[in-house]
Automatic annotation (TrEMBL):
<keyword id="KW-0233">DNA recombination</keyword>
<feature type="domain" description="Tyr recombinase">
    <location>
        <begin position="112"/>
        <end position="325"/>
    </location>
</feature>
<dbReference type="GO" id="GO:0003677">
    <property type="term" value="F:DNA binding"/>
</dbReference>
<comment type="similarity">
    <text>Belongs to the 'phage' integrase family.</text>
</comment>
<dbReference type="GO" id="GO:0015074">
    <property type="term" value="P:DNA integration"/>
</dbReference>
<dbReference type="GO" id="GO:0006310">
    <property type="term" value="P:DNA recombination"/>
</dbReference>
<keyword id="KW-0238">DNA-binding</keyword>
<dbReference type="InterPro" id="IPR004107">
    <property type="entry name" value="Integrase_SAM-like_N"/>
</dbReference>
<dbReference type="InterPro" id="IPR010998">
    <property type="entry name" value="Integrase_recombinase_N"/>
</dbReference>
<dbReference type="Pfam" id="PF00589">
    <property type="entry name" value="Phage_integrase"/>
</dbReference>
<dbReference type="InterPro" id="IPR044068">
    <property type="entry name" value="CB"/>
</dbReference>
<keyword id="KW-0229">DNA integration</keyword>
<dbReference type="InterPro" id="IPR011010">
    <property type="entry name" value="DNA_brk_join_enz"/>
</dbReference>
<feature type="domain" description="Core-binding (CB)">
    <location>
        <begin position="13"/>
        <end position="94"/>
    </location>
</feature>
<dbReference type="InterPro" id="IPR011946">
    <property type="entry name" value="Integrase_integron-type"/>
</dbReference>
<dbReference type="InterPro" id="IPR002104">
    <property type="entry name" value="Integrase_catalytic"/>
</dbReference>
<protein>
    <submittedName>
        <fullName>Integron integrase</fullName>
    </submittedName>
</protein>
Length: 333
């Protein structure tokens, strides 16, 4: 079997343009492109841009990462993201792999039990929400969706007949299927009708196309205008695609839902550290508490390893009333 020929960026381009060229060749998400470029620029500027990255190595990279941890006081996850960006630069762009020599300096993530809401607390939060933000939060909890999976959900991802949600190109580029909350069916059908009217108006105005991942737009030229490919939660206005320059209606920003959840949690009088991801944690925990097999929960959550799912067994409510204290079994003097 022949090895795949490695893609080499145009050497006539500036370094950061080469980075973007390689990122887009490998179909990295636009958000990842922004983050990687930001970290690479910070890495270069850390040394006053006097030295080209190709002339630097393990010492400079360690110095930068150490600065982030000690002076920048960044989390392990943030430091790991910076390291991944630098490894990408050297491996994919400069063709100078450094991941092996840097493996031992990767920051270890501390595994902490997730914060989970009780079903009563979930209801209190939902009672403080209305409109689209309510629908989105119900999907986070009702189907165990990640924030961006909800934001990027397409119309065709909803199967009203089989009560399923199809999530495409999620975290790690994986596809999965999860459950469709039956109690949401009517509200979502009304919402879909409103989105359809908005899409028809966009088409009438000479727009109506939507971003499609990878080369789907070339393979299916009419797909970007089809209703099934439109976002379930479209933005209020049209905007210019930063890559293609085309005017389209993108999905809503995640910051809007994050703020709405924070306000609802405060109004509900809940003092836990709750974010959008808390509803996904609560989804898995409550399924386990209701007796759903952990392997089924693993599949619904899209976990590659059941050990990831097992973390929810540490926070689920357990019936300890029937457990006797060992002190009670001692003989009385």
């Amino acid at each position: 079997m022949k090895n795949k020929q490695k893609f080499h960026p145009n050497p006539e381009l500036k370094l950061m343009d080469q980075v973007r060229e390689v990122l887009r060749y490998h179909h990295y998400a636009y958000r990842t492109e922004q983050n990687y470029c930001q970290w690479i620029v910070r890495f270069i500027r850390f040394f006053d841009a006097k030295i080209h990255p190709k002339d630097m190595g393990k010492g400079e990279i360690e110095s930068f990462l150490s600065h982030l941890a000690t002076e920048g006081n960044v989390s392990a996850a943030t430091q790991r993201q910076a390291l991944n960006a630098i490894i990408f630069l050297y491996k994919r762009v400069l063709d100078q792999p450094v991941d092996e020599i840097l493996e031992h300096i990767r920051a270890k993530r501390k595994r902490r039990p997730p914060i989970v809401l009780s079903q009563g607390e979930v209801q209190k939060v939902l009672n403080q929400m209305t409109g689209t933000h309510l629908l989105m939060t119900q999907l986070l909890y009702g189907g165990g969706l990640r924030l961006m999976e909800c934001i990027r959900l397409r119309i065709q991802g909803l199967d009203f007949e089989r009560n399923l949600i199809y999530l495409r190109d999620g975290k790690g580029g994986k596809d999965r299927t999860t459950i469709f909350p039956a109690s949401m069916k009517r509200a979502l059908q009304k919402h879909v009708e409103k989105v359809k009217q908005l899409h028809e108006q966009d088409l009438a105005d000479g727009y109506g196309t939507v971003f499609l991942p990878h080369a789907l737009a070339k393979k299916y030229p009419k797909a970007p205008q089809e209703f099934g490919w439109q976002y379930l939660f479209p933005a209020r206005g049209r905007s210019t695609d930063p890559r293609s320059g085309k005017i389209r209606r993108h999905h809503v920003l995640e910051s809007g839902l994050q703020k709405a959840v924070k306000v609802a949690v405060n109004r509900a009088g809940i003092h836990k550290r709750v974010g959008c991801h808390t509803f996904r944690h609560s989804f898995a925990t409550h399924l386990l508490e209701n007796g759903v097999n952990i392997r089924v929960v693993q599949e619904l959550m899209g976990h590659a390893d059941v050990k990831t799912t097992e973390i929810y067994t540490h926070v689920m409510a357990k019936d300890i009333n029937a457990v006797a204290s060992p002190l009670d079994s001692l003989e009385k003097p």
